[in-house]
Structures are given as structure tokens and as C-alpha cells.
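[#protein-structures] MJ: dropping 3-oxoacyl-[acyl-carrier-protein] reductase here for a structure pass
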Amino acid sequence: MKLEGKVALVTGGSQGLGRAIALKLAENGADIAIAYVGPNEPAEETRGEIEALGRRARLYVCDVRDEAAVNETVSAVKKDLGQIDILVNNAGVTRDTLMVGMKDEDYDMVLDINLKGAFHMIRACYRDFMRKRYGKIINISSIAGLVGNAGQVNYAASKAGLIGMSKSVAKELGSRGVCCNCIAPGFIKTDMTKDIKEDNPLLIQVPMKRMGSPEDVANVALFLASPESDYITGETIRVDGGLAT
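AK: finished. C-alpha cells for 3-oxoacyl-[acyl-carrier-protein] reductase:
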């Protein structure tokens, strides 16, 4: 299997895109650490599915906004599973409204979780990746970070920031054999998009005329986590059915 002997840490890995990515990596041989907040039941279910694949799985409650909690989680993963080879920064939230009515706390929360949380995670793994001269960092951005979206000033800013941060990290760590890339999903069927109607003006513009699945994103994550992508870094791959073309 492509990822035999590797350990992946997936933030927001108990549900939605994170769950699909965790399962895909596990199917291909990786042991999985899931960092999450929220209800325990989905996390336990995901752990059970991973273990049913014959892989090790560990759960860690971690608010990525909290630098100390992130450092403790990364240390615990290395103690429990021996190492971290793949980091998937998937934890994210939305607090949508037009800019004129957006509260400062909603702007700050989205930036703190979506962008600063990824910063905390990358920094916590940075030195280990440098020393090993190996690492795969995969940041889940969004097409909103590429083209913007009305009512999502905070979300678009956080996802655009992820792209810029990934390019900078790619330049810092490239000489050490560490790859840092982004995935920019479009409309994907998850709880975050469950209220989007089929007649949504943006969805109508999707050339493929449908929403994507979490597995569509997970397949790209698998590629970026695998040896097949060892010469790809600083890239943003859209998974959007052609919407942002």
C-alpha cells in the first residue's frame, strides 16, 4: 500500500471531508490520528471504521486555536503512534453574513480556526519534518479563497490566507524534502453545504452540473500524501467541477 508505515494527523477528522480523508489514507496503509472538537460519537465511529481496516487510530480533543493544546496533541500523537509523516489541516468553520452585518467575533473565530489553527499545527510539526527531511502538509482551502463569495468575507479571507501560507511554507521547507500543498474544494456534499439548494446560482454555474463528494477530495489528498507527489509543492488543486475555471 502507498502509505504503509506512515502516520497521518487529520484535524477536523471525525466528520465530513476530514473523515473521508482519514479513511482514504487508512485504506492505503496509514495509521491515523484524529484531532477534533465537538461530539464524541462521530469520532468514535470514524475510529472504529479505521480500525476495521486494520490500521491504528487515535482520537485527540484539540481546539486548534489553542497553541498549547496543539503542541500537547502533536506530542501525544508522536508518543502514541511513534511519528507524524502527513499533516492534513482540515478543521474549519463558517459564520456567514454580509460584511456590513458581520460581527468582529465571527470574523475572528473563522480566521482563528481556519487559518491560525493550521499555522499552529504546521509550526508544531515543522522541526520534526525538517529533521526527518520528509513530510506531507495538506491544507484544505476552498474555491472561496480563489474567487471570493458574497457573505463569506471571513471564510474567503481565511482560505486565501491558507493558500498564501502554503506557498511560503513550501519555499521554507522544500529543500528539506517537505511538500506543502492546498486542496480547494468547491461545492461538496457535507453538513457544511447541506442547506445549499439545487437552484443556487453558483451551483448552476458548475460545468459538471452536480456537487462533488467527500471522496473526490479524499482522492486528491491521497495523491498529495503519497510518493507520487514528491515533486509537487506550493500548489493548489481545485476539486470544484470546473466552477472556478
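MJ: nice. The longest strand covers residues 178-185.
AK: one more thing. The mean pLDDT is 96.
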